[in-house]
Write a structure and sequence with these properties.
Rossmann fold, alpha/beta, DNA polymerase, domain 1, about 15% strand, 2 domains, two-stranded antiparallel ribbon, 8 strands, about 45% helix
């Protein structure tokens, strides 16, 4: 029986959907007559829940969910065409599946994430996928990780790792009392990630291989 559990973030950890995200933010703003927003700011906010991203870009709370709905309508249509794996991500998933039970913990919408990973041929490797709509409190709160472990029927005395590219992934891991693993393949800055963990590597494949070497 596999003794380890590895939970992966999605954007910046396994996949690159930057083009889809930028496009759908632009469409949402256009729908409601806003000027085009700063793409660099959008990139800086990737990893936060959509409603938080829109609020940080100046959208009032009273209408923020209208913008979120417009974004999701767009994303549902284009995500499969505008998303690709990050380098080595598929190898990371396959190697990890040989010795660990796998799950996904993301702030993306679970329904569309599952459809996307099915389309990309890797959903079969994961026992569970926790998205924004599955929890009350998204990352950096521990709830998404704890829910994933509950659904997997895993106790916290196991070797559990959360691999992610932003401080939210790492803080969520620490709050859930699991091992935080940072990758530099996404949107988080190394100096910020160092505040949460010393386990910082280039990408998800290096993370998986280091887990094998250090924790066997």
């Amino acid at each position: 029986m596999k003794e380890k559990v590895i939970l992966f973030d999605l954007d910046g950890t396994l996949i690159d959907s930057t083009d889809a995200i930028l496009h759908c933010f632009e469409r949402a703003f256009e729908k409601y007559g806003d000027d085009k927003r700063d793409e660099n700011l959008v990139k800086e906010l990737i990893g936060f829940p959509l409603d938080v991203m829109f609020e940080k870009m100046g959208i009032d709370k009273e209408v923020v969910w209208d913008y979120v709905d417009a974004y999701k309508e767009c994303y549902r249509k284009i995500s499969k065409q505008k998303t690709e794996f990050l380098p080595n991500a598929v190898d990371a998933i396959k190697e990890a599946s040989k010795f660990a039970r796998l799950g996904i913990v993301t702030t993306k919408t679970a329904r569309y994430s599952e459809e996307l990973l099915e389309h990309m041929g890797v959903m079969k490797y994961f026992e569970v996928l926790i998205g924004r709509e599955n929890v009350t409190h998204p990352k950096p709160h521990p709830e998404p990780i704890l829910l994933a472990l509950e659904m997997m029927e895993v106790s916290l005395d196991k070797d559990i790792f959360m691999i992610g590219d932003t401080f939210m992934d790492l803080e969520s891991a620490k709050n859930a009392k699991v091992n935080p693993v940072a990758v530099l393949s996404g949107y988080g800055r190394e100096e910020e990630l160092k505040k949460y963990t010393d386990f910082i590597v280039k990408d998800s494949l290096e993370a998986v291989r280091k887990i094998v070497l250090q924790y066997n």
